[in-house]
């Protein structure tokens, strides 16, 4: 019998599981391929950031135009996927499927219909990455139309070719073209959500790609991982938590009452959604960027939206004062998307519409220099025993 392995790090905390040239997540900075997140949020569109992540460098004007045209040309969904999306309303009403599950199934079906699905060459992977980046917002839009009992918006083209990536997604979801501010806020949120090194869903995609399985399979697994409320699902859960607090306070935002609610939550050992992070201990670089943009958008839209930020700011101050825990990007995201009128169950699917670029970059990086990802386990089960002993 071999001697016991050293005790594993719970949740692989602090374990460096590989090299990547895509992203660096540090206490003092978040970097995508050498560019710092504030620089990108201030100066780059999501299409430019998507190109950077997928191709490795900032696009020239000509490269960006070609890339945008590629995305627009690939927005429309195959009829089989539209037919599937037309069946989802009863599943949502029954509670057996939420939008993240529907998105996961639709992406998997896209793989069944993609002639290059089994081809994991660098060239085919890049083409598939662009097709998925183009089509995921369309899946979200068409799915929302069906859930709302509305006609599917632009089923033949996947949207309006005159709209950018973020604006077209909002247009597909509601049938209304967003104003410039809503477009900008969502565009920046997609940049903030695009990539984050070996987070749970990205690592899941690399483990799948590491067996030389295909991109659609790896992305399907990543969507399943991102759904969890400890990961991407936190943006929906954070807004649900704020609505629970607001309801319990009868809509009266007074700090003592919030403190009392939080104290009860602490006593119950509740995890407050949108707070904490495995790596960031002095705050998530992305959260203040989105909070500022989201609050400004709420202030333009009226007191019924600003009140969520007023409540959220009290909650995050208490978390800081009592637990020294900072909000992560999901906390401001909930309040921001709520102010923009986005249905809460679509918050995490929109996270997917951004993170598909990071996942695809990691899947391509894994395939390009692969070694099967296969860690060891520390056996703590029963001692050796005889079946007919
Ligand atoms: C994302 O990894 C990534 O990069 C992810 C992400 C990305 O871009 O891909 O950044 C996106 O998923 C952000 C995280 C979203 N999740 C949440 O907001 C869910 C709530 N957060 C927690 O579940 C937690 O903070 C995690 C999961 C995010 C991190 O958990 P860890 O590193 O495993 O920390 P832990 O659970 O061991 O907590 C350490 C201590 C505990 O106290 P003790 O039991 O030791 O006394 O801090 C406490 C925890 O109770 N704590 C919290 C808390 N987060 C940590 N207490 C209350 N509420 C919280 N949110």
Structural commentary:
The chain has helices at residues 37-43, 46-55, 61-73, 79-85, 89-94, 99-112, 122-147, 165-174, 180-193, 200-209, 215-227, 234-248, 255-267, 286-301, 303-323, 330-339, 347-368; strands at 23-25, 30-32, 35-36. A hairpin with a 2-residue loop joins strand 2 and strand 3. It has a 3-stranded antiparallel β-sheet with strand order 1-2-3. It is globular. The protein folds into 2 domains: 20-226 and 346-368, Citrate Synthase, domain 1 (Orthogonal Bundle), CATH 1.10.580; 234-339, Cytochrome P450-Terp, domain 2 (Cytochrome p450-Terp, domain 2), CATH 1.10.230. Helix 7 runs parallel beside helix 8 (165-174). It has 389 residues and is mainly alpha-helical. The chain binds s-citryldethia Coenzyme A (SDX).
Strand content: under 5%
What is the structural class? mainly alpha
Radius of gyration: 22 Å
Biggest sheet character? 3 strands, antiparallel
CATH class of the largest domain: Mainly Alpha
Q: What best-fitting shape do the alpha-carbon axes yield?
A: globular
Along the chain, the helix and strand elements come as: EEEHHHHHHHHHHHHHHHHH
Residue ranges: pLDDT <50 for 5 or more in a row? none
Number of strands: 3
What bound compounds does this protein have?
Answer: s-citryldethia Coenzyme A
> In the CATH scheme, what's the topology name of the largest domain?
Citrate Synthase, domain 1
State the helix count.
Answer: 17
Query: For the residues shown, what is the average pLDDT?
Result: 97
What count of structural domains?
2
Span between termini: 19 Å
């Amino acid at each position: 019998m071999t001697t016991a392995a050293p005790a594993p790090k719970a949740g692989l905390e602090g374990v460096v599981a590989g090299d990547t040239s895509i992203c660096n997540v540090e206490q003092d900075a978040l970097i995508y391929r050498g560019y710092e997140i504030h620089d990108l949020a201030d100066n780059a569109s999501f299409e430019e950031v998507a190109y950077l992540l997928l191709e490795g460098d900032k696009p020239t004007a000509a490269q960006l135009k070609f890339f945008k045209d590629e995305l627009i040309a690939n927005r429309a969904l195959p009829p089989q996927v539209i037919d599937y999306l037309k069946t989802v309303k009863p599943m949502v009403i029954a509670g057996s499927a939420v939008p993240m599950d529907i998105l996961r199934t639709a992406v998997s079906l896209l793989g069944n219909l993609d002639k290059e699905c089994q081809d994991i060459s660098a060239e085919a992977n890049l083409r598939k990455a662009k097709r998925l980046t183009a089509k995921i917002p369309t899946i979200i839009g068409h799915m929302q139309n069906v859930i709302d009992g509305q006609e599917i918006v632009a089923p033949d083209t996947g949207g309006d070719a005159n709209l950018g990536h973020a604006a077209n997604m909002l247009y597909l979801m509601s049938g209304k073209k967003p104003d410039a501010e809503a477009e900008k806020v969502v565009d920046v949120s997609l940049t903030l959500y695009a990539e984050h090194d070996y987070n749970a869903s990205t690592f899941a995609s690399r483990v799948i790609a590491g067996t030389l399985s295909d991109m659609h399979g790896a992305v399907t697994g990543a969507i399943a991982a991102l759904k969890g409320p400890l990961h991407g699902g936190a943006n929906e859960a954070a807004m649900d938590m704020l609505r629970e607090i607001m309801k319990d306070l009868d809509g009266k935002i007074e700090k003592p009452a919030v403190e009392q609610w939080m104290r009860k939550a602490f006593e119950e050992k509740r995890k407050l959604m949108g707070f904490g992070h495995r790596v960031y201990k002095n705050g998530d670089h992305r959260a203040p960027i989105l909070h500022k943009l989201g609050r400004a958008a709420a202030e333009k839209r009226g007191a019924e939206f600003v009140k969520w930020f007023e409540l959220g700011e009290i909650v995050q101050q208490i978390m800081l004062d009592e637990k020294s825990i900072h909000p992560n990007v999901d906390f401001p995201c909930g309040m921001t998307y709520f102010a923009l009128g986005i249905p809460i169950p679509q918050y995490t699917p929109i996270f997917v519409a951004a993170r598909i670029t990071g996942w695809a970059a990691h899947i391509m990086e894994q395939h390009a220099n692969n070694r099967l990802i296969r860690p060891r386990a520390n056996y703590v089960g029963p001692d050796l025993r005889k079946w007919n002993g």
